[in-house]
Amino acid sequence: MSKIIIHGGFFSESDQSREVKIAKQESLKKIAKLSWDFLQNHTALETVSYSVSLLENDELYNAGTGSQIQSDGVIRMSAAIMDGESQKFSGVINIENVKNPILVAQKLLSEEDRVLGDIGAKNYATEKGFKDYSTEIPQRRKEYLAKVESLRKGTVGCVALDKSGKIAAATSTGGKGFEIPGRISDSATVAGNFANEFCGVSCTGVGEDIVSNATAAKIVIRVSDGFSLEKAFEKTFEELKKIDGFAGAIAIDSKGNIFHQDSYPTMVFASFDGENFEVFD
Ligand code: ASP
Fold first, then answer.
1. Where are the alpha helices (DSSP H) in 109-206?
2. Which residue has a Cα nearest atom 4 of ligand 1?
3. Which residue of 84, 144, 175, 204 has the lowest C-beta tally within 10 Å?
4. Distance 212 CA to ligand 1 centre (A)
5. Nearest to 268 by CA among 156, 140, 149, 185
6. Which amino acids does the record list as binding substrate (predicted)?
7. Nearest ligand 1 atom to alpha carbon 78
């Protein structure tokens, strides 16, 4: 049994055209299928990084190429990966000018210092052979110049369960757009991305809300302590409601159950188990 679920964040209010919706459904289906195929002869850990790198390369999403621009006109990206088996978490925070932040995060898994920020993250990437790459696309510059603020642009994430029962989670984001330089997104924290032997979760939404609610870590811990995936989401999203939090999350547990929930419509997601697709509508 192997399972995969991916997300592409929330629908941007300015992007809610039928064309964009169809493009996102098609893209997510294609990436879910490619990722599932990859999972057939790779580990969950290798697969979540591969899957998120495909999402980062697609301009439709706010991660990697197509990331949003911060208030000072610079793109800074964050990404994290967590191996449910070893419980190792690694990530990059506010990295600039690399094509795939998730691949830098994955590289850090084998280091003693596993979460790097800003220039330290960029220097590490350069040292490891990641080339300078601008992830800016004209559409994002246009939005930046028009000062269109949108919190619903589309962070990406993936959770996978491989044939040997191992779980991993990965998340990557261009942030919320127009943020103060130095702001830390939830995506490269255990609130936005968490996995252990029982469950893996990747989140999207307002980073501050996700951190206040410790969303991913809470869901995983609840499942570890015996909650069903559904109940763990129910309780965690009830708590999120109390702070009027804006978030969505995807998850897989060790039994192969897949689940997703969002506090506001509509999180963009797709799952695939080798036979059936479930895609957001
Ligand atoms: N969670 C991301 C952040 O706050 C944004 C998003 O998921 O859309 O940086």
1. 118-127, 138-145
2. 207
3. 144
4. 13
5. 156
6. 183-186, 204-207
7. 9
* Same-domain pairing of 178 and 268: yes
Same domain for 31 and 141, yes or no, is yes
Out of 1-5, 14-18, 73-77, 270-274, least confident range: 14-18
Cα Rg of the chain, angstroms: 17
pTM of full prediction above 0.90: yes
Q: Does some domain include residue 8?
A: no
Closest CA to 229 of 245, 212, 251: 251
What separation in Å is there between the alpha carbon of 62 and the centre of ligand 1? Answer: 9
Residue pointed to by tokens 């919706």 = 21
Q: What would the pLDDT profile of 15-30 be if each residue is shown by its tens digit?
A: 667 888 899 999 999 9
Q: Do 211 and 97 share a structural domain?
A: no
Cis ω on the peptide bond leading into residue 266 (within 30° of 0)?
yes
What is the number of alpha carbons within 13 Å of residue 165 lying toward its C-beta? 4
CA 174 – CA 32 distance, rounded (Å): 21
Q: How far is the CA of 171 from the centre of ligand 1 (A)?
A: 10
CATH assignment at residue 254? 3.60.20.30
The pLDDT tens digits for 127-159 are 999 999 999 999 889 888 887 655 456 899 999
Whose Cα sits closest to atom 9 in ligand 1? 175
Angle 212-199-225 from CA coordinates, rounded to 5°: 75
Tell me the catalytic residues. 155
Separation of first and last alpha carbons in the chain: 26
Judged by DSSP in three states, 245 sits in coil
Together in a domain, 109 and 177? no
How far, in Å, CA of 52 to CA of 58, rounded?
Answer: 10
